[in-house]
Amino acid sequence: YGGVISWMARLQPTVALSTAEAETNAAVEAVKMLCHIRMFLEELGVKQTHPTTLYEDNNAVMSLVAGAESSKRSKHYMLKTHFLIEKKLNGIFDMKKVITKEQMADIWTKPLNPEPFNRYRNWMGVINCDINNSTR
Questions:
Q1: What does each of the 136 residues of the chain score in pLDDT, given as a tens digit?
Q2: Alpha-carbon distance 28 to 87, whole Å?
Q3: Exposed e or buried b for every residue in 56-83, given b needs 16+ CB within 10 A?
Q4: CA distance 125 to 8
Q5: Consecutive H or E run containing 117
Q6: What is the maximum alpha-carbon separation in the chain?
Q7: What is the 8-class DSSP label of residue 134?
């Protein structure tokens, strides 16, 4: 439990006009991936009875997915927002707030000092394997 199954870091194919739009685009890609993973687990006989947790550090996205916010600035990507709302209502995922300082995805997208790098690595269940000092 708790280990990383899938990750992706790449440039988004479209230009986002706000951080909320960029984070919404990233959330859509994450939910599409977790839908595939959940279906794969179902095929293996692992029943998916609870929503998968998606951690988000952007308040605007949290508000859009909760259905609490809609504005002139977000109307051009509302289709993506509605996709997220539908999947959330269908019990596919649940979105939880994570403070930016604890956003584990930063290990894949930002240069980090050793302290946060090691903390995120440990949270993911990845161990440090020092091959230079190992005995064979």
A1: 455 566 666 677 778 878 888 889 989 999 999 999 999 999 999 999 999 999 888 888 898 888 766 666 777 788 888 999 999 999 999 999 988 778 777 787 788 888 888 888 887 777 777 767 655 4
A2: 10
A3: bbbebbbebbeeeeeeeebeebeebbeb
A4: 18
A5: helix 114-123
A6: 63
A7: -
